[in-house]
Amino acid sequence: MDSSACFQLKGSAFTLTVLQLFHNDLDCLQAELGEKVAMAPQFFNHTPVVIDLHELDEDQLDIDFIALKKIICSFNMIPVGTKGAVESQLPAIADAGLAVLAEAKHPAAKSREEHSEQIEAKNQSASEQNQQQALEENNKNKQLTPEVEIKTVNIPQQTMVITHPVRSGQQIYAPNGDLVIKGAVGAGAEVLADGNIHVYGALRGKAMAGVKGEKSANIFCHQLESDLVSIAGIFALRDDIPPDNEGVANHINLVDERLVFNKM
């Protein structure tokens, strides 16, 4: 790298909060978003947001993106872009200064794509059959060669074990593995892990598992009293927790993009 260069452009991946729209009623959005943010204002403060447009019906595509951006910013969140936009929305998105993170797939375009995928699959199947026949013929003709033993080495994930309670204001993060806490997590504390989270005590504060997008991550606790729980960026606030699951042992996992609370 040139030592005189003052910057370098690099690609990277980040976990971002996604605001998925189901209709274009911005007044309704402002009211409901305000209620969510009021439950955990610090969690949403300066949070980068991607606006997902995939679920909008054909008659809901007309959106004032400048007004939408102002609404999101009014809650101290930072809209960085959109995904799932159709071509007719692109000029308005550009006028609002938002990035387009994914191209839209119109239903008709999806059908054409699915048809192309079917044709490609058939061609690939035929190609694989030809390759298999050629391989069998080659095996008949080649001389025997010594077998080479290949060993696969499994690198275990790292597990961080905390043997003391996590107090208010503390943040514990377990990268590349699970987090095990042999005690309580206090109100105002945050515990995060790339893998699973196990709390052998009361879970208050915030618990975020699978923070790099691992949807198979789980949260286990002996007593659920958390302000916020999250798996792979999909979160639930205190009011979203079923009443029967509060104050008891829970196993929390992700099913069809929704958090499921299971009493243990």
Please describe what this structure looks like.
With 264 residues, this protein is of the alpha/beta class. It has 2 domains: 17-103, Alpha-Beta Plaits (2-Layer Sandwich), CATH 3.30.70.260; 160-263, Pectate Lyase C-like (3 Solenoid). Helices cover 26% and strands 29% of the residues. The chain has helices at 26-39, 41-44, 65-74, 90-95, 107-141, and strands at 17-20, 48-52, 78-85, 99-103, 158-162, 171-174, 177-181, 190-193, 197-203, 206-209, 219-224, 228-231, 234-237, 250-255, 258-263. Helix 1 runs parallel beside helix 3. The protein is globular and about 60 Å long. Residues 104-112 and 150-155 have low confidence and may be disordered.
Helix and strand topology:
Blueprint: E1 17-20, H1 26-39, H2 41-44, E2 48-52, H3 65-74, E3 78-85, H4 90-95, E4 99-103, H5 107-141, E5 158-162, E6 171-174, E7 177-181, E8 190-193, E9 197-203, E10 206-209, E11 219-224, E12 228-231, E13 234-237, E14 250-255, E15 258-263
Parallel strand pairs: 1-2, 2-3, 3-4, 5-7, 6-8, 7-9, 8-10, 9-11, 10-12
Antiparallel strand pairs: 11-14, 12-13, 14-15
Helix pairs in contact: 1-3
